[in-house]
């Protein structure tokens, strides 16, 4: 399939006229027609004629110096507003909402010449780790459709794994890009807070929310991040820090110190996942990188702190949905939405705010120090993405606590703001993908890409596809 | 910790402006309880004298020119385009005051 190729190979192929943007778009729609009915990855599909018209235009207008994303089909998580295109956040509250403006990330991708072909299914408002908590039905895992895709950005990961698109944009508040990337065998980056503008991203927890790339390869994510990163006058929390030239950095083979915290490989983590991390460690070692064993006891408190701050912020963010100016009434929130709004309301309420919310904000300072200490001894941390494999459909939906614990290794990075890249690193005995993540200091995306690229040159986990994707 | 009872659940739902059925209140109370109890682990951390972190950008007072930004203005028609109830070019809102 053409869409097995990396983004740089696709860009090269278009320039050498070996295939056209029309071919790529047709391939996506073939996959969508074949699989979206079963897997439920996309909520809104752009009419095929429209996408093909954009592709024909791209084929005519392609110049050698165009963006590498020019003419490439992509998918946005349905949490990004797109003018004139229905945007739901997978919630019945917004089931007929047609935005009047564009998210900055969408504007930037349109300017790069990439072609939007769909809006992806997710846990409603980002609330979940399985993409089952959607008013548009659960997203199913392409490796075993009796299992969940992971969430909240499940639809994007499935669309990449099944070649419904060349790349996608997700959103990560506590693992929402990394968790489905791990469970679907794709690569995804939670960026440094502020690296990409959040303007037009429907908010879950504003001080944790990040907009990031998802694709087959780390190198692909680097190309997409280049197109979407940077300061935005419409988002005052976006960073003025200059954006690295990621492609140049990819080739660096600097020897690095990779830290492994023993707490991330202890009880409660599936043994096959522990083995995948150990194997990744050996692979990095064989490339000449140094492995540093360390201890980060605070990581065990990640979910507890996350589940005080994120619901507090979401209770405030979702308070604006009153059904007056847009959207439906508050009775339309899902069970999980209502639970998170109420947990946050409780954590912020008089008499409890000190014990819950304010204490958690102090713990956040402790997390920052814990990571600073770790990064004084190593350049990057290697850890699992999830403690267990993709569960069967229905296992997490009525178990709010188990759902929360799926995020055990992905909730501490967001309160700190640091970037973390999830990449495929193995398969379970049942053939389910396993992911590991590389976490680095603020604005170290270029180093994460570098390491992941080296790993993906040595391994083939990222090249394997679910059965039937031919 | 104080157990989240059905009464407390109903009170929180009222504060959050969420209309819940009695069945939902019964269902949510133990679920909220288990999550809140779990999050109480955070109180084991020694946070005495630690400053709170509310954001991680290191930025403050990001200002822009105090001018009208026409690129981000909606027309009246656009502003009203998603409202379920409008009247003479206005949003219709639920009454706050009762007779």
Automatic annotation (TrEMBL), chain B:
EC number(s) recorded for this UniProt protein: 6.3.5.-
Catalysis performed (reactions): L-glutamyl-tRNA(Gln) + L-glutamine + ATP + H2O = L-glutaminyl-tRNA(Gln) + L-glutamate + ADP + phosphate + H(+); L-aspartyl-tRNA(Asn) + L-glutamine + ATP + H2O = L-asparaginyl-tRNA(Asn) + L-glutamate + ADP + phosphate + 2 H(+)
The organism's place on the tree of life at top rank: Bacteria
Keywords attached to this entry: ATP-binding, Ligase, Nucleotide-binding, Protein biosynthesis, Transferase
Enzyme class (EC, first level): ligase
Listed GO MF terms: asparaginyl-tRNA synthase (glutamine-hydrolyzing) activity; ATP binding; glutaminyl-tRNA synthase (glutamine-hydrolyzing) activity; transferase activity
GO BP field: glutaminyl-tRNAGln biosynthesis via transamidation; regulation of translational fidelity; translation
Pfam families: GatC
Stored SUPFAM superfamilies: Glu-tRNAGln amidotransferase C subunit
Protein family membership: Belongs to the GatC family.
Subunit note: Heterotrimer of A, B and C subunits.
Job of this protein: Allows the formation of correctly charged Asn-tRNA(Asn) or Gln-tRNA(Gln) through the transamidation of misacylated Asp-tRNA(Asn) or Glu-tRNA(Gln) in organisms which lack either or both of asparaginyl-tRNA or glutaminyl-tRNA synthetases. The reaction takes place in the presence of glutamine and ATP through an activated phospho-Asp-tRNA(Asn) or phospho-Glu-tRNA(Gln).
Protein name in UniProt: Aspartyl/glutamyl-tRNA(Asn/Gln) amidotransferase subunit C
């Amino acid at each position: 399939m053409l869409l097995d190729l990396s983004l740089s190979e696709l860009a090269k192929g278009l320039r050498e006229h070996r295939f056209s943007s029309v071919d790529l778009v047709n391939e996506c729609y073939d996959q969508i027609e074949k699989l979206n009915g079963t897997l439920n990855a996309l909520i809104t599909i752009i009419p095929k004629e429209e996408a093909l018209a954009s592709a024909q235009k791209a084929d005519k207008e392609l110049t050698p110096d165009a963006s590498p994303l020019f003419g490439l089909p992509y998918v946005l998580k349905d949490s990004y507003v797109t003018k004139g295109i229905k945007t739901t956040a997978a919630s019945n509250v917004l089931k007929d909402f047609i935005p009047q403006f564009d998210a900055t990330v969408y504007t930037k991708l349109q300017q790069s010449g990439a072609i939007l072909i769909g809006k992806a299914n997710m846990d409603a408002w980002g609330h979940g780790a399985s993409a089952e908590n959607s008013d548009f039905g659960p997203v199913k895992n392409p490796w075993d459709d009796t299992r969940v895709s992971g969430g909240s950005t499940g639809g994007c990961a499935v669309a990449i794994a099944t070649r419904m698109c060349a790349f996608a944009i997700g959103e990560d508040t506590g693992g929402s890009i990394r968790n489905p990337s791990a469970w679907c065998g794709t690569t995804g980056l939670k960026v440094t807070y502020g690296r990409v503008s959040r303007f037009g991203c429907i908010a879950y927890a504003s001080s944790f929310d990040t907009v990031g790339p998802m694709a087959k390869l780390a190198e692909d994510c680097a190309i997409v991040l280049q197109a979407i990163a940077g300061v935005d006058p419409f988002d005052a929390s976006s960073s003025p820090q200059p954006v690295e030239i990621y492609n140049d950095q990819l080739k660096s083979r600097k020897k690095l110190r990779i830290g492994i915290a023993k707490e991330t490989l202890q009880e409660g983590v599936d043994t096959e996942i522990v083995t995948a991390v150990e194997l990744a460690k050996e692979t990095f070692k064989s490339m000449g990188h140094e492995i540093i064993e360390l201890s980060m006891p605070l990581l065990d408190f990640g979910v507890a702190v996350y589940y005080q701050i994120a619901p507090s912020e979401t209770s405030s963010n979702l308070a604006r949905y009153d059904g007056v100016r847009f959207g439906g009434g508050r009775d339309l929130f899902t069970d999980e939405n209502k639970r998170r709004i109420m947990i946050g309301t409780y954590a912020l309420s008089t008499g409890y705010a000190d014990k819950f919310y304010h204490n958690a904000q102090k713990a956040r300072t402790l997390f920052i120090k814990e990571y600073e200490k770790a990064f004084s001894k190593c350049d990057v941390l290697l850890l699992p993405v999830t403690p267990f494999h993709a569960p069967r459909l229905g296992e997490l939906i009525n178990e709010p606590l188990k759902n929360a614990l799926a995020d055990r290794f992905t909730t501490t990075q967001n309160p700190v703001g640091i970037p973390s890249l999830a990449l495929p690193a193995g398969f379970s005995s049942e053939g389910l993908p396993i992911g590991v993540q590389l976490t680095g200091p603020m604005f170290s995306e270029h180093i994460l890409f570098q390491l992941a690229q080296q790993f993906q040159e040595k391994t083939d986990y990222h090249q394997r596809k679910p059965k039937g994707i031919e | 910790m104080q157990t989240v009872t059905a009464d407390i659940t109903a009170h929180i739902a009222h504060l959050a402006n969420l209309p819940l059925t009695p069945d939902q209140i019964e269902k949510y109370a133990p679920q909220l309880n288990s999550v809140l109890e779990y999050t109480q682990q955070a109180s084991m951390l020694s946070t005495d004298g630690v400053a709170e972190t509310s954001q991680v950008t290191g930025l403050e007072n990001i200002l822009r020119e105090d001018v009208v930004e026409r690129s981000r203005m909606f027309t009246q028609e656009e502003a009203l385009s998603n409202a379920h109830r409008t009247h003479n070019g206005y949003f219709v809102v639920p009454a706050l005051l009762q007779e």
